[in-house]
Structures are given as C-alpha cells and as structure tokens.
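W.,

You were right to be curious about this one. When I first looked at the sequence I had no strong expectations either way, so I just let the prediction run and decided to look at it fresh. Below is the sequence, 202 residues in total, followed by the output.
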Amino acid sequence: MNEDQINISKLDQNFWNERWKNNETGWDIGYASPPIDEYISQYKNRDAKVLIPGCGSGYEAALLSSKGYSDITVVDISPEACERLEKKFKNHSNVQVLCEDFFKLQGYFDLIIEQTFFCAIPPSMREEYVQKAHSLLSKKGKIAGVLFNKNFDKPGPPFGGRIEEYQKLFDGFFHIKKMENCYNSITPRRNAEVFIIIEKNN
C-alpha cells in the first residue's frame, strides 16, 4: 500500500455512497464475521451500549439484536447504506441508525465492534481513530474485532497493516488484552487477520 498514490480527500461521503449505490461492496461477506460472532456470543453484558462504526449492512448489529442486546448504535457515513439500515432495523427498537461521520460522533459506549471500518480509513488518520475511540468509550470500555494482518499491493481502501504497527498505535490509550492471528477467519481472509480485544486506559 502506498498512501501517496491515493487522493485521500476523495475518500469521503460521496465516495462511499457511490460504492453502495453501485453495489461495489466487496467487503460485504453476507453475514456476521465468525470471529466477531464468537466474541459476541460469549460477551456477558446484554445491556452494554454497543457501537458499530462503518457498519455497512449491519450483520453484526442483527446478530447482537438476536442475542438480546438492548442498546446498539450503528453508524455509517453513506446515506444509501443508512437508508437500507433503517429499513432493515425498522422493527428493532434496540438498534439506532446514525448517518454520521465517526470522527464527529458524540456519546459514550461500553463496546466498539471493529469489522471493516479501521481498514477503510487512510493510515494517516489512524492516530485520530485511536483518540476518538478512546473518547467515546466509557471506563474500561473495549474495542473488539478484526484488523488486517497484511499489507496490500494496490492502493486502498482497504488499507492493511501489521501487529507491530497496531501495538505501537494503541499503546498509551489502550491496554492490549488480545492481539493475535485470527484462527477462525473466513477462507479468503485466512492468515490475513488479527483479532483484537483492547481495553481503554483511564
């Protein structure tokens, strides 16, 4: 990945909205990611305030809802994606859909689910992501999910990275409880993902 090859300013709401309108959603696997599915199944607090940024089709939110989680917020910058989410969750009072920029979001959450958002933002914005996620989390709040554990030959998105980079990035703001190669990735992403559970430092 060479960030210099990308016009970062074009990775905006219009960019993502056009991707949705044209069904150019190669990141959409059609169901909740297995590593996140497993984590959600064992997470005990069904009343936790859960945030899913860049949620896309909202599979993880649907899974959370089916398991009885009571306070789920999904955020996407694309109006097209949010319109689909509104229809999908119109009968789910426990799911709130926000068409907003994650970096301007306000509120407090106990858990942030990370699926395909981190890899969609330019690496130059990753420090800002860490600081924003830290500000949005309540005491002992966590980020859990998957990050790519590889670098891509083509300009992103998606943007890759390595465990060593992530450790340095989150250090100081978060305590890394788990950051290791994912054993239950989907086949196309096998050996290319790292599963994380990181807890906010207070």
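Here's what jumped out at me. The radius of gyration is 16 Å. And, maybe more interesting for your project: The first strand starts at residue 49 and ends at 53.

Coffee later to discuss?

I.
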